[in-house]
Amino acid sequence: MDHVVFVGAGLAAAKAVERLRDEGYDGAVTVVGAEPHLPYERPPLSKDLLLGQQADPTVLAPGWWGEHGVTLHTGVRVTEIDRRGRRVRLDPGEWLDYDTLVLATGAEPRVPDLPGAGGALYLRTLEDGGRLLEVLRGGGRLAIVGAGWIGLEVAAAARSHDVEVTVLEAAVLPLAAVLGPELGRHLVELHRSHGVDLRTGVTVEAVLEDGVRTSDGVVEADHVLVAIGAVPAVGLAERAGLAVDGGIVVDERFRTSDANVLAIGDVANAMNTRLGRRLRVEHWDNAIRQGRAVADVLRGRDAVHDWLPYFYTDQFEFSMEYVGRSAPDDRVEIRGDRDANEFLAYWLAADDTVTAAMNVGVWDVNDRLRSMVGSRIAPADLPGPSGE
Q: Which residue, 135, 198, 228, 363, has most beta carbons within 10 Å?
């Protein structure tokens, strides 16, 4: 492992490189990123940044890269992987040799096949966040297509700027597949109580210059944000002939169908040994953990993808952490004060196995909840916020 090349300069790649150097790897390391920025974290884009709060999302200090002998190319795209020759072509045309290649190409906003969708706002990059913040500071009316995590977080931020917000969601309830119907209704009530016009069961037919045409009529707006999820950036891997299925297919040690190529982060559909199935997770915690884990793999250590998915959100007074992986048929048990947004929620399978847990407005308990996932616990024994 003389030269490790990372394609993609996001959080996962940065954490992998940091771990390699911290653990004493002194070989050559190169990171190639298409964006013109130092690696940064994306959660602030829909949270602190849109709220107008000062936040530096940079993962590592600007001087860290040179001080640790890491070559960082920003604003440079990799256009081709030559697996036989173990090299990648950079967009200026030159080739870069590698001994081990790590793909961390991330994901891209899902663009619907609708008239006018190309002219809508999307939120994925720092530039996207800056444009959206200017829109919110300008006031007016914002229509958001999609009531997923990004759509709802942007709606909450927009209301803090007194922007009129309409959220259009095709499903009967937002995020019901993850949270279940009771908590889906809770989010609807939360947003409506803050003046968000959240409409469910509505199909969007076109993005217009002055709004959105839907199955329920035209919604007038000065700006339209499309937030209907993301798709893994697998084009480079596909062209190289790597196995792709809902992401780049990797084993529990992040190895692709080519022994010299690994993949991590949003783009990786990785085998999870704890859950016994592949998962592609787009959240912040997973990028950090996979970055560190792949560095350990590269160092020859027995590191595997064995942790539970984790994510968090902040929307008005609804601040939560979620850990685990629930199924649509799981039942939800709530302990605490739902109306005050201070409660714990547990997802239980038919045999009372805890598949996921969430703390809302209750802190320093997520590690305890994590330890409960996978255990069979009778509903009567599920603890509340006070631990009883």
A: 198
